[in-house]
Design goal:
about 280 residues, eight-stranded parallel beta barrel, 11 helices, globular, alpha/beta, about 45% helix, TIM Barrel
Length: about 280
Protein backbone atom coordinates (compact mmCIF):
# COMPACT_ATOMS: atom_id res chain seq x y z
CA UNK A 1 0.00 0.00 0.00
CA UNK A 2 1.31 3.45 -0.84
CA UNK A 3 3.14 5.21 1.99
CA UNK A 4 2.61 5.31 4.89
CA UNK A 5 2.41 1.55 5.24
CA UNK A 6 0.11 -0.04 7.75
CA UNK A 7 1.28 -2.81 10.12
CA UNK A 8 1.73 -6.29 8.70
CA UNK A 9 -0.94 -7.70 11.01
CA UNK A 10 -4.33 -6.07 11.39
CA UNK A 11 -7.06 -7.34 13.69
CA UNK A 12 -10.65 -6.84 12.50
CA UNK A 13 -11.79 -5.66 15.91
CA UNK A 14 -14.82 -7.54 17.20
CA UNK A 15 -17.64 -5.42 18.58
CA UNK A 16 -18.96 -5.96 22.12
CA UNK A 17 -22.62 -5.24 22.81
CA UNK A 18 -24.62 -4.27 25.88
CA UNK A 19 -27.73 -6.26 26.91
CA UNK A 20 -29.88 -4.12 24.60
CA UNK A 21 -27.42 -4.83 21.77
CA UNK A 22 -26.02 -1.31 21.69
CA UNK A 23 -22.28 -0.99 21.11
CA UNK A 24 -20.30 -1.22 24.35
CA UNK A 25 -17.81 1.49 23.45
CA UNK A 26 -15.63 1.37 26.61
CA UNK A 27 -15.03 -2.37 26.20
CA UNK A 28 -14.39 -1.92 22.48
CA UNK A 29 -11.72 0.70 23.20
CA UNK A 30 -10.14 -1.42 25.93
CA UNK A 31 -9.86 -4.32 23.49
CA UNK A 32 -8.31 -2.01 20.90
CA UNK A 33 -5.70 -1.03 23.48
CA UNK A 34 -4.86 -4.68 24.13
CA UNK A 35 -4.44 -5.37 20.43
CA UNK A 36 -2.18 -2.37 19.93
CA UNK A 37 -0.07 -3.46 22.90
CA UNK A 38 0.29 -6.84 21.18
CA UNK A 39 1.81 -5.12 18.16
CA UNK A 40 -1.17 -5.35 15.82
CA UNK A 41 -2.85 -2.65 13.82
CA UNK A 42 -6.62 -2.37 13.78
CA UNK A 43 -9.19 -2.91 11.08
CA UNK A 44 -12.32 -1.17 12.24
CA UNK A 45 -15.55 -2.53 10.79
CA UNK A 46 -14.33 -5.68 9.13
CA UNK A 47 -16.41 -8.82 8.70
CA UNK A 48 -15.66 -10.02 12.21
CA UNK A 49 -16.61 -6.61 13.60
CA UNK A 50 -20.15 -7.40 12.43
CA UNK A 51 -19.81 -4.25 10.35
CA UNK A 52 -22.82 -4.94 8.19
CA UNK A 53 -24.96 -5.26 11.31
CA UNK A 54 -23.96 -1.73 12.34
CA UNK A 55 -25.78 1.41 11.23
CA UNK A 56 -23.98 4.18 9.38
CA UNK A 57 -24.13 6.49 12.41
CA UNK A 58 -22.81 3.71 14.67
CA UNK A 59 -19.77 3.16 12.50
CA UNK A 60 -19.14 6.87 12.22
CA UNK A 61 -19.54 7.42 15.95
CA UNK A 62 -17.30 4.51 16.89
CA UNK A 63 -14.53 5.79 14.61
CA UNK A 64 -14.82 9.16 16.32
CA UNK A 65 -14.53 7.42 19.70
CA UNK A 66 -11.39 5.54 18.59
CA UNK A 67 -9.79 8.76 17.38
CA UNK A 68 -10.73 10.62 20.57
CA UNK A 69 -9.29 7.73 22.59
CA UNK A 70 -5.90 8.53 21.11
CA UNK A 71 -5.15 5.42 19.08
CA UNK A 72 -2.69 6.53 16.38
CA UNK A 73 -4.31 6.86 12.99
CA UNK A 74 -1.33 5.16 11.34
CA UNK A 75 -2.53 1.91 12.92
CA UNK A 76 -6.03 2.13 11.45
CA UNK A 77 -7.55 0.61 8.37
CA UNK A 78 -11.25 1.46 8.34
CA UNK A 79 -13.86 -0.76 6.70
CA UNK A 80 -16.12 1.57 4.74
CA UNK A 81 -17.76 -0.64 2.14
CA UNK A 82 -21.55 -0.87 1.96
CA UNK A 83 -24.04 -1.70 -0.76
CA UNK A 84 -24.79 2.01 -1.14
CA UNK A 85 -22.40 4.33 -2.95
CA UNK A 86 -23.46 7.41 -0.91
CA UNK A 87 -22.98 5.63 2.44
CA UNK A 88 -19.62 4.21 1.37
CA UNK A 89 -18.54 7.69 0.34
CA UNK A 90 -19.60 9.21 3.68
CA UNK A 91 -17.67 6.63 5.70
CA UNK A 92 -14.65 6.78 3.40
CA UNK A 93 -14.46 10.57 3.52
CA UNK A 94 -14.58 10.48 7.31
CA UNK A 95 -11.69 8.00 7.51
CA UNK A 96 -9.57 9.83 4.95
CA UNK A 97 -10.16 13.23 6.50
CA UNK A 98 -9.23 11.82 9.91
CA UNK A 99 -5.85 10.79 8.50
CA UNK A 100 -6.35 7.02 8.40
CA UNK A 101 -3.86 5.60 5.89
CA UNK A 102 -6.17 2.98 4.43
CA UNK A 103 -9.80 2.02 3.93
CA UNK A 104 -11.04 -1.51 3.34
CA UNK A 105 -13.83 -1.47 0.78
CA UNK A 106 -16.17 -4.33 -0.07
CA UNK A 107 -17.85 -4.49 -3.45
CA UNK A 108 -21.54 -3.64 -3.44
CA UNK A 109 -22.82 -7.11 -2.63
CA UNK A 110 -26.61 -7.39 -2.66
CA UNK A 111 -27.07 -7.83 -6.41
CA UNK A 112 -25.50 -11.02 -7.72
CA UNK A 113 -24.09 -12.03 -11.12
CA UNK A 114 -22.20 -8.77 -11.30
CA UNK A 115 -19.94 -8.13 -14.27
CA UNK A 116 -16.44 -6.72 -14.28
CA UNK A 117 -17.86 -3.54 -15.80
CA UNK A 118 -20.33 -3.13 -12.93
CA UNK A 119 -17.82 -3.85 -10.18
CA UNK A 120 -15.28 -1.44 -11.64
CA UNK A 121 -18.00 1.20 -12.04
CA UNK A 122 -18.96 0.92 -8.37
CA UNK A 123 -15.43 1.45 -7.09
CA UNK A 124 -14.82 4.18 -9.67
CA UNK A 125 -17.87 6.08 -8.52
CA UNK A 126 -16.72 5.89 -4.89
CA UNK A 127 -13.24 7.15 -5.77
CA UNK A 128 -14.56 9.99 -7.91
CA UNK A 129 -16.99 11.13 -5.23
CA UNK A 130 -14.47 10.98 -2.40
CA UNK A 131 -12.16 13.05 -4.60
CA UNK A 132 -9.25 13.16 -2.15
CA UNK A 133 -5.66 12.56 -3.16
CA UNK A 134 -5.01 10.97 0.25
CA UNK A 135 -7.44 8.11 -0.48
CA UNK A 136 -5.84 4.66 -0.30
CA UNK A 137 -8.23 1.77 -0.94
CA UNK A 138 -7.64 -1.84 -0.02
CA UNK A 139 -10.08 -3.86 -2.13
CA UNK A 140 -11.81 -6.56 -0.10
CA UNK A 141 -12.32 -9.92 -1.79
CA UNK A 142 -14.52 -12.23 0.29
CA UNK A 143 -16.77 -13.99 -2.24
CA UNK A 144 -18.07 -16.57 0.24
CA UNK A 145 -20.05 -13.79 1.92
CA UNK A 146 -20.52 -11.19 -0.79
CA UNK A 147 -21.13 -13.49 -3.73
CA UNK A 148 -18.91 -11.12 -5.70
CA UNK A 149 -15.35 -11.94 -6.73
CA UNK A 150 -12.80 -9.19 -7.19
CA UNK A 151 -10.93 -10.69 -10.10
CA UNK A 152 -7.48 -9.99 -11.48
CA UNK A 153 -9.19 -8.08 -14.28
CA UNK A 154 -11.03 -5.85 -11.78
CA UNK A 155 -7.81 -5.18 -9.86
CA UNK A 156 -5.93 -4.39 -13.06
CA UNK A 157 -8.54 -2.04 -14.48
CA UNK A 158 -8.93 -0.12 -11.23
CA UNK A 159 -5.18 0.09 -10.61
CA UNK A 160 -4.63 1.39 -14.14
CA UNK A 161 -7.39 3.96 -13.79
CA UNK A 162 -6.54 5.02 -10.23
CA UNK A 163 -2.89 4.11 -9.59
CA UNK A 164 -2.69 6.11 -6.37
CA UNK A 165 -6.10 5.43 -4.85
CA UNK A 166 -5.95 1.65 -5.41
CA UNK A 167 -3.23 0.69 -2.97
CA UNK A 168 -3.85 -2.92 -2.03
CA UNK A 169 -6.27 -5.76 -1.51
CA UNK A 170 -7.35 -8.24 1.10
CA UNK A 171 -8.01 -11.73 -0.20
CA UNK A 172 -10.33 -13.79 1.95
CA UNK A 173 -11.15 -16.28 -0.78
CA UNK A 174 -9.54 -19.02 1.31
CA UNK A 175 -8.09 -20.45 -1.88
CA UNK A 176 -4.32 -20.28 -2.19
CA UNK A 177 -4.37 -20.46 -5.99
CA UNK A 178 -6.57 -17.36 -6.09
CA UNK A 179 -4.37 -15.59 -3.57
CA UNK A 180 -1.25 -16.49 -5.51
CA UNK A 181 -2.68 -15.10 -8.75
CA UNK A 182 -3.68 -11.88 -7.01
CA UNK A 183 -0.23 -11.63 -5.44
CA UNK A 184 1.38 -11.88 -8.87
CA UNK A 185 -0.89 -9.17 -10.25
CA UNK A 186 -0.29 -6.98 -7.21
CA UNK A 187 3.48 -7.32 -7.39
CA UNK A 188 3.52 -5.88 -10.90
CA UNK A 189 1.57 -2.87 -9.67
CA UNK A 190 3.25 -2.48 -6.26
CA UNK A 191 0.04 -3.17 -4.36
CA UNK A 192 -0.02 -4.49 -0.82
CA UNK A 193 -1.79 -7.82 -0.39
CA UNK A 194 -3.18 -8.99 2.93
CA UNK A 195 -4.41 -12.55 3.28
CA UNK A 196 -7.54 -13.20 5.32
CA UNK A 197 -6.08 -16.02 7.39
CA UNK A 198 -2.74 -16.55 9.09
CA UNK A 199 -2.81 -20.08 7.65
CA UNK A 200 -1.27 -18.52 4.53
CA UNK A 201 0.92 -15.93 6.27
CA UNK A 202 4.38 -17.34 5.62
CA UNK A 203 3.59 -18.29 2.01
CA UNK A 204 2.10 -14.87 1.36
CA UNK A 205 5.08 -13.03 2.80
CA UNK A 206 7.46 -15.16 0.72
CA UNK A 207 5.47 -14.25 -2.39
CA UNK A 208 5.67 -10.53 -1.67
CA UNK A 209 2.50 -10.08 0.37
CA UNK A 210 2.21 -7.46 3.07
CA UNK A 211 0.68 -9.54 5.87
CA UNK A 212 -2.73 -10.62 7.11
CA UNK A 213 -6.02 -9.23 8.36
CA UNK A 214 -7.21 -12.11 10.47
CA UNK A 215 -10.19 -12.67 12.73
CA UNK A 216 -8.11 -14.71 15.13
CA UNK A 217 -5.72 -11.80 15.62
CA UNK A 218 -8.36 -10.74 18.15
CA UNK A 219 -7.20 -13.61 20.35
CA UNK A 220 -3.73 -14.52 19.08
CA UNK A 221 -2.25 -11.24 17.90
CA UNK A 222 1.14 -11.44 19.55
CA UNK A 223 2.06 -14.78 17.95
CA UNK A 224 0.84 -13.69 14.51
CA UNK A 225 2.75 -10.40 14.75
CA UNK A 226 5.89 -12.26 15.81
CA UNK A 227 5.92 -14.41 12.68
CA UNK A 228 4.89 -11.57 10.37
CA UNK A 229 7.78 -9.45 11.57
CA UNK A 230 10.30 -12.32 11.60
CA UNK A 231 9.45 -14.59 8.65
CA UNK A 232 13.05 -15.71 8.19
CA UNK A 233 13.68 -16.77 11.78
CA UNK A 234 15.00 -20.34 12.20
CA UNK A 235 11.75 -21.68 13.62
CA UNK A 236 9.43 -19.86 11.22
CA UNK A 237 7.93 -23.09 9.87
CA UNK A 238 7.18 -24.32 13.38
CA UNK A 239 5.56 -21.01 14.25
CA UNK A 240 3.48 -21.16 11.09
CA UNK A 241 2.25 -24.64 11.98
CA UNK A 242 1.34 -23.37 15.43
CA UNK A 243 -0.65 -20.47 14.00
CA UNK A 244 -2.45 -22.79 11.60
CA UNK A 245 -3.32 -25.19 14.41
CA UNK A 246 -4.72 -22.39 16.56
CA UNK A 247 -6.76 -21.07 13.66
CA UNK A 248 -8.11 -24.55 12.94
CA UNK A 249 -9.09 -25.01 16.58
CA UNK A 250 -11.22 -21.87 16.46
CA UNK A 251 -12.76 -22.73 13.10
CA UNK A 252 -13.59 -26.25 14.24
CA UNK A 253 -15.39 -24.94 17.33
CA UNK A 254 -18.24 -23.30 15.44
CA UNK A 255 -19.04 -20.07 13.58
CA UNK A 256 -15.95 -17.92 13.90
CA UNK A 257 -17.44 -14.66 15.21
CA UNK A 258 -19.36 -16.21 18.14
CA UNK A 259 -16.42 -18.50 18.93
CA UNK A 260 -13.97 -15.60 19.11
CA UNK A 261 -16.39 -13.61 21.24
CA UNK A 262 -16.84 -16.54 23.61
CA UNK A 263 -13.07 -16.75 23.99
CA UNK A 264 -12.88 -13.04 24.77
CA UNK A 265 -15.67 -13.43 27.34
CA UNK A 266 -13.47 -15.92 29.18
CA UNK A 267 -10.33 -13.85 28.73
CA UNK A 268 -11.84 -10.60 29.95
CA UNK A 269 -14.19 -12.14 32.49
CA UNK A 270 -17.29 -10.47 31.11
CA UNK A 271 -20.15 -12.43 29.58
CA UNK A 272 -21.27 -9.42 27.56
CA UNK A 273 -18.55 -10.26 25.06
CA UNK A 274 -20.62 -13.25 23.96
CA UNK A 275 -23.39 -11.07 22.56
CA UNK A 276 -23.85 -10.85 18.80
CA UNK A 277 -26.52 -9.12 16.79
CA UNK A 278 -29.04 -11.35 15.03
CA UNK A 279 -29.05 -13.16 12.72
CA UNK A 280 -25.84 -14.42 14.34
CA UNK A 281 -26.27 -16.58 17.43
CA UNK A 282 -24.23 -16.45 20.61
CA UNK A 283 -22.36 -19.48 21.92
CA UNK A 284 -23.24 -20.14 25.55
Amino acid sequence: MNDPQLPRVLAPVVTPFSPDLEIDTPRFLAHCDQLVQSGAGLTLFGTNSEANSLALNERSGLLEAVLAHGIPTELLMVGTGTCSIPETVVLTKQAVQAGCPGVLVLPSFFFKNQTTVGIVAYFSEVIERVADERLRICLYNIPSLTGVSISIDVVGQLADRYPTAIAGLKDSSGDWATTQALLQEAEERELDVYVGSERFLLRALAAGGRGCISATANVNARAIVDLANNPECPDADDKQRGLAATRAAFEDSGPLIPVIKANLALRYGHEGWRRVRPPLESIC
